[in-house]
Amino acid sequence: MSVWEYLYNGFLVALQWQNLIYAFVGVLIGTAVGVLPGIGPMSGVALLIPVTSTLTAGSSAEEAAASAIILLAGVYYGAMYGGSTTSILLNTPGESSSVVTTLDGYQMARQGRAGAALSIAAIGSFVAGIVSLVALVFLAEPLSNLALKFGPAEYFSLMVLGLCAVSGLAGHSMTKALIMTVFGLLLGTIGVDNVSGVARFTFDSPVLYQGLEFLTIAVGLFALGEVFKAILEKEKNEGTIAKVGKIYPSKQDLKQSAAPIARGSLLGFFIGVLPGAGATLASFFSYMMEKRISRHPEKFGKGAIEGVAAPESANNAASGGAMIPMLTLGIPGSGTTAILMGALIMYNVQPGPLLFDEHPQVAWGLIASMFIGNLMLLILNMPLVKIFAKIIDTPSKYLLPIIIAISFFGVYAVQVNTFDLFLLIVCGLMGYLLAKNDFPLAPLVLGLVLGPMIENNMRRALTATGGDWSIFVTHPISLLFLVIAACWILIPLILKWRGKKVLVNEEG
Amino acid sequence: MSRSFDRIASILFILVGVFFIVESRKLSSTAYGSGVGPDLFPMGLGILLILLSIRLIFETFRYPKEKQEGKTLDIKRFAIILFSALLYALLMETLGYVLTTFLFLVVAFQTMERGKWWLSIILAAAFSVGVYYLYVNILKGTLPSFPF
Predict the structure, then answer these.
(1) Would residue A504 count as lying in a domain?
(2) What is the pLDDT of residues A106-123, one digit of tens each?
(3) Number of C-alpha atoms within 13 angstroms, CB side, residue A394?
(4) What is the pLDDT of residues A22-32, one digit of tens each?
(5) Structural domain spans, chain B
(6) Which chain B residues are Cβ-neighbours of A201 within 8 angstroms?
């Protein structure tokens, strides 16, 4: 079958009425998550995994997986849209990837052009979403076919590369990021070993045989951690919300932003595909690029519409690009895609090169639904942006306890035991303390998701050679991956050592 | 960056590493049909974790002088909510989902901000009963029911 036939079948899945509803609910909640300061895309997605798994309980495994991932991905890219709203209206980024948008977006709002800024952000996000999807459609097959030629040694090295890339760019201290990665990998070894059937670190307690549930840890670390932070540190939205004003941008605005949107989309997409470099870096780079090539760089920071269009396109394109390594290689490049991958694994759908052969319904359904979801977001965001701006006012005194209650419900509904509820609270405390002290959480989740797979591939490779470790460096592709992995760790270290400032990616 | 937190965390991570090494020595080192046993991977990771933590301890000596943080933490509010969350988890299976959720939410709402009792009670009741009804009666899931 050709790409077009697969895509057509994907649209058949995505256009089923229940999946349309899931996509709609996903992007709607995603936008709200993006607008609410304090809840990032990672906690939004984590919080909704159990909710979707209960909603899809009645349908067959394949359909349930397709519907769930459609909703969860909707939350992910919806949050990218919503994040710009608070940046522009309140000068407070809803999530880290729209930090740069505050520079010019808020200035535009102060000049009474908030509506134009918001709609350009929405249009830019839409164009970028479509660009990255088209690239995804055409890259998916060749990449999967390439990955199918990989043996266990290559997979092992590729996953090591993924972990190194994320650790190398996460947070301010690489040591801390690596500690979190290794800690995540270690937590992943708890439970019955897949290869030998030996129970490891379980102390004969049956709740541990299955291993620590990924879902509980993700919800605890991200959602509960953020709630605890908000309770302890009494976050308040200060400042007044700017008036939205006229929504539709003028012809002049559109003309000025067309080129930045195109450049931002392409740049963002390529940065998104790279593991470790996510939406935050993409928006940052594209802003700097626009400023550099602009004929009026002095306008930036004073309400230049290019300064809104480019980074908003870039962060959306990056979130689409980040899906590629996750879907085709099974290597999530960021915290949020790691959580999405964990959700797919919960449904027994293993992302990776075989995904497109074994579960075309899930893979192509997701891709098609992203086209539809982006369109929904554009339609939702243009006229309804005034309503979304009201969400900012949601009183946190009601929101925070309800988030705790939702995470309790979600974890209990999936796990049906109280052990996981206590684990949830412990993870929430850990998430707060670690994040507060610059220990990045995304590498931990990534380690937890990839851990069992890394170990399996490592042992399969070593079994084939009878325990000879040289297999990882004698296979050329595997060697290449390991060299790139080493570079990813070493180059920032060398740069830092020579006194250069290294950009880091503070997001999921 | 907090120097003392990072030191304590490093020591805790070293202990975690030691724990995993000690425990994985109890596992068999070979497995049927496999060249490497289930002990190798966790043991290697444990060693790596210890090395990284030691490096972090050394890094803490080079931290710039600590600044006093201006933020005051609302410990009391947090402690009440944490304690009620623990009770919530502990009692959920004995008292049932609706009752514990209702009580937890009322307490948490009131801890966040005193006053408006009626709104707190209505919201908490709507959430707990609504979720229970939706999940158990419509989606046919299981949640601990009432104690009576």
Answers:
(1) no
(2) 888 888 888 888 888 888
(3) 19
(4) 999 999 988 88
(5) 3-60, 75-138
(6) 20, 23-24, 42
